[in-house]
Amino acid sequence: MIRSLPKIGASSKLLFTTTGSTSFSGVSKAVERPSALAGRHLSGDGRLAPWRLHDLRRTFAAGCARLGVPLHVVETSLNHTSGTFGGIVAVYQRHDFLDERRQALETRGRFVIGLTGSGSGPALTE
Known about the structure:
The chain is mainly α. It folds into 2 domains: about 1-50, no CATH class; about 50-120, no CATH class. The protein contains 5 helices and no strands. The protein has helices spanning about 25-40, 55-65, 70-75, 90, 100-115. InterPro entries: DNA_brk_join_enz, Integrase-like_cat_sf, Phage_Integrase.
């Protein structure tokens, strides 16, 4: 899928770029749209409490834990290099857990799709 993405710039090795020479920026604008969309679905004044992109990482980690994903798989999915992978473990543990991470992401994805009612995943609440 990644190889099929159009490249911006002749020699760009950047996956997320708008110029071909610098990495992606403009995150605050990317946050505005989902905040506005979510605000439309809220009762009361329609304002969403302030949030940061890091909140999505926290939500992913907590949600995976609830779904039974092992902590070491959550940490590698979030690209953490401390925690269970700190100290001596960081020296010796070289497995990338790609299959386990893929399964965790698919499990979490099915759960979220089930929450939205737009797919065939379980209709559970978090």
